[in-house]
What does this fold into?
Amino acid sequence: MNKLCLILCSKYDFSVDLVIQELEKTGIDYIRLNKEDLSNYLINIDPVKKVLTVKGHGKNRTVSNITSVWFRQPVFIRNAPAYPLSLEEQLVRSQWAAFLRGLIVFEDAIWMNWPSSTYSAESKPYQLMLASKVGFMVPKTMIGNDSSYFEKFDEEIIVKSLDTVLLREGEDCLFTYTSNITAKELNEENTKIAPLTVQEYVYPKTDIRVTVVGEKLHAVKITSAGRGIDNDWRLLKKEEIEYIDIGLPKLISRYCKDIVSEMGLKFGAIDLIESNGNYYFIEINPTGEWGWLSTEKRPIEKDIANVLAG
It folds into this structure.
């Protein structure tokens, strides 16, 4: 039986293009469905016989031999349109999202990652609990909207959103980043409206990104001018950032693989920080970006293609 990979993604995701090139090199068949184009196709599933049919734009496929499913994005979860959605657009989004979730009828396929595992893995409190469970050091953390608990932290703290924030105001797209402030800046007036995450400020620090794909692991430290970055490194210009390959202590590598396994994932992008020889877990993204890290030394697209190939 020929192998076939079903890819659920965005047409703007160049990382998917890299993986598809690897699948083509090894002769693995695939069907790519971009979330922006779903209504341009005729797509059906027979949930009992486990058969998928896709027609349109040069495709005319009826398949039941799905070897793997790459659930690249939690479809529509974080889309914040610049305009109010019409009733039709709301219907389209909700029903296609439900349809894609329904693809779990292909339960025997290799999923990267299984949808329910992806959704639970996006919970920051759940991440921190599991990280501590597998052995990671975790910064002292409090999540909520009661500022009286935040007063118990040392003077310098880290403040960040509980989930990815993507807002629109007029034509502007707004994001939030991790901020380093003092605990006394938080009070009932500015925290009661919504919960937030407060953590102890670990300093000095070096940011580390660990990409886990199956049993493969790639780790880089993120620096600027050869030094750790005090604040959120994503605020720096691209040309100011360095990604340097590093080897992790065996125990930390094991923790990274363990938390991915505990979450039921095949892929995870993990953020750590190193401070005075200690490694702290910060977060994991089950659909994290990695294209900007891929090199000959870090062939992440090949690792992903190998898992999807079964």
Notes: Residues 87-101 form the longest helix (15 residues).
